[in-house]
Amino acid sequence: MVGRLERKGRLIVVSGGGTGIGRAIAGRFAASGDTVLVIGRREHVLSRAAEELNESLRGAAGRVIPVSGDVSDPRFLARFKDQLEATEDGKVDVLVNCAGGAVRGPDSSLDEIAATWTENYRSNVLTAVLLTETLDPRLRRPGGRIVNFSSIAAFRGGGGPYSAAKGAVTSWTFDLAARLGPEGITANVVVPGYIEDTEFFGDRMTAERRARLIAQTLDGRAGRPEDVAAVVFFLASAEASHITGQVVHVNGGALFGR
Ligand SMILES: NC(=O)c1ccc[n+]([C@@H]2O[C@H](COP(=O)([O-])OP(=O)(O)OC[C@H]3O[C@@H](n4cnc5c(N)ncnc54)[C@H](OP(=O)(O)O)[C@@H]3O)[C@@H](O)[C@H]2O)c1
Predict the structure, then answer these.
(1) Where are the beta strands (DSSP E) in 4-90?
(2) Does the Cβ of 35 fall within 6 Å of ligand 1?
(3) Ligand 1, atom nearest to 223 Cα
(4) Which of helix, strand or coil describes residue 114?
(5) Sheet bearing 145-149, strands edge to edge
(6) How confident is the model at residue 172 (pLDDT cuts 50, 70, 90)?
(7) What does residue 8 show for φ and ψ, rounded to 5 degrees?
């Protein structure tokens, strides 16, 4: 877990920070001097990411610290909270709920359908809700920032239970923004389109599918994790204090399905 923090810069928590978009977000904050806790279930993936990101900082002030665990598991979250409270100033400046993904499963019986829908909800909604509830008392007031992750699939379908779960993240973000706004905390939801160099598609990406997704953009290219990281970094800045309860799309104009 975390150990003593010897904090540099702001304290940022990024779930799903070991790969893809979350990893780029962690790198973006660390490069600007912040301390970033990256959370994921696979310890070796996280440690390697933290090592590589820290090496790439080459003397810059920030730091990436791996914390392995499942953010949908209340027992892990209780331990994580205790660890943060044991640090000299466990205040969290920015929480990025990036962990998630589309869970495929069989659907030939109601039991199988229930299992797949439940798993998508757990992976995309509970991960964000439970980590946010865990850190809520420790978020900086005023000035704290929460960035949640939805998907283009929530706005135009195509992902079945995954689309529906990401839709739930979006509507929950509005409640969060309303609840925490009076305390000076913003909550926004970032909505990526097709982003390459992530583990999101696993072995489900083909050359044809990639070409189709790129053809739907207006700039003729796939999104990059850094495209999304730049938006998250801005939403987490002091300059973005009047932006809350918003849905920010990063998809090269693909939303309209051209
Ligand atoms: N790539 C795209 O085209 C795209 C498009 C729209 C939306 N998104 C969304 O963007 C976010 C980032 O995804 P990505 O594209 O960067 O894919 P990714 O590389 O698969 O990243 C997802 C990360 O979440 C972690 N994670 C998943 N469940 C977790 C849990 N219960 N507890 C802790 N960590 C967990 C995974 O690590 P472990 O498996 O080690 O836990 C992984 O590092 C996701 O919410 C995804 O739905 C992606």
Answers:
(1) 11-15, 35-40, 63-68
(2) no
(3) 3
(4) helix
(5) 63-68, 35-40, 11-15, 94-97, 145-149, 186-192, 247-250
(6) very high
(7) -120, 135
* pLDDT over 90, % of the chain: 91
Does ligand 1 lie within 6 Å of residue 71's CB atom?
Answer: yes
- pLDDT tens-digit series, residues 157-170: 999 999 999 999 99
pLDDT in tens, 88-107: 788 999 999 999 999 999 99
Atom number in ligand 1 closest to CA 20? 16
229 Cα: distance to centroid of ligand 1 (angstroms): 14
- Alpha carbon 99 to chain centroid distance? 5
Query: Which residue(s) pair with 146 in the sheet?
Result: 95, 187
Position 258 pLDDT exceeds 60: no
DSSP state at residue 92: B
**Residue (of 170, 166, 228, 175) closest to 197 by Cα position:** 228
Tell the residue number behind the tokens 């540099």, with chain if given: 8
Ligand 1 centre from 254 Cα, in Å? 20
* 92 touches 13 (CB < 8 A): yes
Strands 247-250 and 94-97, sheet pairing: unpaired
Predicted structure pTM score: 0.97
Distance CA 157, CA 167 (A): 10
d(CA 103, CA 161): 8
Residue 116, φ and ψ in degrees, nearest 5? -70, -45
3-state SS class at 189: strand
Domains of the chain, first to last: 11-251 (3.40.50.720)
